[in-house]
Amino acid sequence: MFESKKPLLIFSSVFLMTVILFGAFMPALAVEETDTQTMFIDEAEEWLWYENIDRKLLKEDDMNSYSWLLFIDLINCFPKVLVPTENGDVKEIVEYPNEYAGAFIDEANRLHIVLTKPVDSETEYNYRKITGYDESVVYDVAKYPLPFLYDVQTSLGDVMAEFGIQSTSLNEFTNRLEVDLSDSTKEKDIVDFLTTKFNEFDTGCLTFTDSTGPMLPTASNTATNALAGSQTSANANQIIGSLGFNAYDKSTGQYGAVTAAHVAPFGATRRNALLTTIGSVSISKFGGTVDASFIPFSSGGNNISPSYNYYTSSPESADFLMSYCKNSFFVSGLSMHTIGNTTGHLTGTVLSVSMQGQMEQYVGSGYFVNFNDLLKVSNGVNEGDSGGIMYHQVWSGSLLSPPIKMIAGIIIARTGFIIYDGVGSKVENIMNELNIGLYIKSPIHQYVSGIESKTTLGYGAVNNWNGLIGNTPDGSYVQLYGGNYGDGGHVVGQMNSVSSGDIWVYAYSGNGYYTHFYTYVAYNYNGPWTLTKVQTVYGNGGGAQWINCGYANSGFRYIGLAGYDDNGMSANIFIDAVLVTQP
User: Fold this and answer.
1) CB-based contact 407:427 (threshold 8 Å)
2) I need a labelling partner for 491 at 20 to 30 A (CA). Which of 172, 226, 409, 511 fits?
3) Residue-wise pLDDT tens digits, 425-439
């Protein structure tokens, strides 16, 4: 399912005068406020978007996500088994065929399916049919079956301390298991150990690397105001890490936020970036597949207030959560976003879908805990990013629907004062181990449902003013024109409901024009009016696009749009629709 504020300014005297002239009155039509609806990830509906998305458009505009969907098609055709989890639930495990050596998405965003034998008539029928005979899919041949590499990694999981292994990562690009060592003299011992575990063990499946040190918990003094990836702290002077995503405790129904366990151990009280107390950690797991904690809101209520909503800065505030990345659907090369308190918003790709390693529970304690089934990404992370969010973004295929954020997990930062590759706990593992569900708020879109007035300034013009009405671009544009200094036009629209949030206008300026464009909002038609944004819209012949016209944090019922030549440059803007989105 789905899951920059401007100062108060008085409308220009010209606009106020036209408001008086063209009807300073309260409209008879009553407008009621619409509440945000609470929505949860529904197991039966969480992947409806996957069935309904226009793949042809996706291939043209988001090839990485398109290749990911082909990979999901492949994984869905492999047999699955259910295995019990520690909390008594079950999770799904994929049984890979023996000829399957992995998959990855390359730098050109093409899906590679790796097999241990050349594609013959049988495999071509099986694999090419699954992927719809898509010509973009590349078939590679490698030596080691994926199940074998997983078995080797599992065998090393219990002897990491003994052999000085800091981490192991499954590299499907090279068809190898990367072993990160703190002591390179242990290479022979590791090979000897694996020789006792596997008949005719081939050392070529291993790549040894020198360690940069064990993964450690982190701290930082960097502050920001967004929730996802923003700071969390014990007090005003002790900023510890980052926050991840909103969730709810399935056993108690409490709502809260998820972060890393080493950032917020059991019982610890944590604050958000606004130094507001979130609550005290009620569930925490450090080891195995997760480093994660759940912090229930101290109010105990069943709503997540705006200060706790999952959102970032414009234009990402229009994005919304729709589902999450299942363990079996991760693929090397998948594009990945991270938001951490220190490094902010970064983009990268998945380097390994299966990493195991050791992490020191507290800095300097000397007590290390083993982890497995972690996600390794190319996004750089640094101190203070631990607990921040990881997500994949899919273009939705619609101008009105914002990109879809698929939660992937939370960041576990690596040690040191320089940036390293990022490591994360997978979201499905977090949900299973902590027995939590994802919480989101449905996106609310408000739009212009009627025209209250249209006014010309000087010798300006307003044409086809009803073209502004509607909740989708329909090709019917209102034109605001001003050919000389002091000329222009403006139109006042009534919203379909009391609105607040980011204001988007689907518009373009005539080719060669430099339109000075004003956006105002008001609760009452006769004011006071608030200027949310003034900007120059250049006419470059590129056509209409969604233009951000500022943010309104208080409810408004009317929106005023003005195209005005007040800087010696002619105004000529065409507006199709207005959309207000809430974070």
Assistant:
1) yes
2) 511
3) 999 999 999 999 887
